[in-house]
Amino acid sequence: MIPIRSLLVAACLVFAGAVAAAGDVKRELGAYVVYLPAETNFDQVVERVQDEILAQNWEVLKVQDIDKGLKEHHNIDVQNKLILACKSQYLAQAIQFDPDVSMIIPCRIAVYRVGSAGQAVSGDPELCAGGKIIVGFSDPVEEAKRIGIGDSEAVKVASKELQAILQGVADHFKK
After folding, report:
1. Does residue 9 carry a pLDDT above 80?
2. Engineering a disulfide at 30: which of 91, 97, 109, 142 sits with its beta carbon 3.0 to 4.6 angstroms away?
3. Torsion sign, CA atoms 117, 118, 119, 123
4. How many CB atoms lie within 10 A of CB 175?
5. Residue 64: phi, psi to the nearest 5?
6. Positive or negative CA dihedral for 103, 104, 107, 112?
7. What Cα–Cα distance (Å) separates residue 52 from each residue in 39, 146, 160, 168, 172?
8. What does residue 156 show for φ and ψ, rounded to 5 degrees?
């Protein structure tokens, strides 16, 4: 089940206003995001995110097919994946610091497509026109603060490495 907070952050990002140039990692509303042009191949983006996670010595725990569930249960055709990732070394340190960190793990990286008006869309070229693919994650440092976790070095380092994952995705698609 997806936490409501994650859905709200995703919705806010869609309506956040200024769109970054393709490949720029931006901090918006307690999250880090990168915007890719609509014509970018969605499946290649999902694959690249997983490659970058592994390149940072993290584990890909699961790729959750949000789009398949929406299609199956609500007949909504969109492109939306949630990639669950973890680096057990940081998890071990963070849990020793404060076991409440368990409430914000694993780290989640969302990949989804929106149309020109910010609405969730499928890969249909007509619906994608003027839109973008958004790749982003809720900053674990901000999440930790929201639930009262102190100043954890492991959480800060995890946030920096997640930003590096996004930057790797951005750099790959700048080519």
Report:
1. no
2. 142
3. positive
4. 5
5. -90, 125
6. positive
7. 21, 27, 13, 6, 10
8. -65, -45
Burial class (CB in 10 A: 0-12, 13-18, 19+), 45: buried
- C-alpha distances (whole Å) from 101 to each of 30, 90, 166 are 17, 11, 22
| pLDDT value at 7 more than 60 | no
Domain 4-174, CATH: 3.30.310.70
Query: How far are the Cα atoms of 39, 42, 94 from residue 128, in angstroms, in the given order?
Result: 8, 11, 40
pTM comes to 0.84
**Structural domain spans, the chain:** 4-174
- Name the token pair of 13: 């990002």
Q: How close are the terminal C-alpha atoms of the chain, in Å?
A: 36
Rounded-to-10 torsion of CA 153, 84, 110, 66: -150
Report the side by side order of strands in the sheet with 59-65. 25-28, 31-37, 132-138, 107-114, 80-86, 59-65
pLDDT 10s digits, 14-66: 433 344 445 689 999 899 999 999 999 999 999 999 999 999 999 999 999 99
* 113 touches 41 (CB < 8 A): no
Task: Provide the β-strand partners of residue 33.
Answer: 26, 136
Beta bridge partners of 37: 132
Q: Who's near 15: CB < 8 A, 6+ residues apart?
A: 118
